[in-house]
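To assess whether ligand presence alters the predicted conformation, the chain was also submitted together with magnesium ion. Input:
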Amino acid sequence: MEKTKFAAVSDAATEKCVIEEAGRILKEGGLVAFPTETVYGLGGDALCKESSKKIYAAKGRPSDNPLIVHICKWEDIYKITSEIPPEAEKLAKAFWPGPLTMILKKSDVVPPETTGGLMTVAVRMPEHKIALALIEAGGGYVAAPSANTSGRPSPTTAEHVKEDLDGKIDMILDGGSVGIGLESTIVDLTEGVPTILRPGYITQEMLESALKTDVKIDRTLLDADCGQAPKAPGMKYRHYAPSGALTIVSGEHKKVTETIARLAGEKAQAGEKVGVICTDETKALYQADCIESVGARKDEEAIARHLYAILRRFDDEHVTCIYSEAFSDKGIGQAIMNRLLKAAGHHVLYV
Ligand code: AMP
Ligand code: MG
C-alpha cells in the first residue's frame, strides 16, 4: 500500500464522485473505511475472499473472528443466506436500516474467510447516507468490522481511523463524528429462541416488543466466569482495552467518588499517571492528570457516544492507571457497561 487517500464527504457534489471512486476501489478488491451510525467500519467486498483476508491483515485481527456483511436493501439478503426465519423479517421491518446485526444461515456465495469459517453469516443494514451509498456503489455486499487496529477502541471519528490504519488501506471517507458510538446489537436467529450475542443500542426490551416473544441474552455476557465459550467469536477477545490498567468502581454514589478520589491520589503519589472517567456532576470532585467526563449521568446516549474517544485519549496521554465510575446497566446502559467491563478485563471494585 502506498498512500491512504483521505476524502471528506461534505456536500452532495463531492459525495457523488468520492463515493463512485470508493465503490470502484471495493469492486477492485481494495479497502475503504467509512462512517456508519454506530462506529467507523473498514469495508471490503464481502463475497471476495482476498478482500476479507486484507481486512484481517490491516486490522491485525485473528482470522476466526468473523466479519459483519453490510447490505443496502432488504432483497439483497436472499443471495447471502440459505434460510430467512420470520423473526428476521420482523426485526428488519422494525430496526433496519439501523444498529442491529442478525446472525443467519449463510449461502455458498459467502466465502468462509468472511465468516471466520462459520456456516452462519452476520448481516446488517446501516442507517447512514454515506454507508448506504458506498455499499450500493461497491456491489451491494460490504464486509466491515470496526475500522480500528485489533485491540484498540472502535473508531468514532475519521481521525481515529487514520491513527490506526493510515498506510494500510486504500481510502478513508470522513463523515464527521458518529451518532451512536458503540457497535451494533448482535442477535442470533439460527437456533430456537432469538439470543443477544452482543448488547447495543437496540435493547432486549426493544427486540421483545418487535417480536412479541422472549429474547435471551447469551450466558457469557452475564457471567464472564461461566466457563462457556461466547457464541460471538469476537466476544472472547479482550477488545477495546486502553493501555493503562482500568478499574471500574461500583456502589453507592458517594462511596464511589470518595474511593476514586483517594485511589487516584495514592497512585499519583506512587508515580503513576492517572486518568479518571466521570460525569459532569462529579468532575469537580477529582484531582488527576487526565479527568474525562462522559457527559451528564442521565444522558446515556452521550455516554455511549463519548466512551471510545475518551479511552483513546488516555492512550494518547500515556495514562498508566484509570478509574471509571460504574454506569447504569439498564437499556443502552447494558451495552455501555458491557464495553467498559471488557476494556477493564472485568476488573471491578465494589465499594
Ligand atoms: P466488529 O464488526 O468488529 O464489531 O465485529 C463483528 C463481530 O460480530 C465479531 O467479533 C463477532 O463476535 C460477531 N459475529 C460476526 N459474524 C458472526 C457469526 N456468524 N456468528 C456469531 N457472531 C458473529
Ligand atoms: Mg470491532
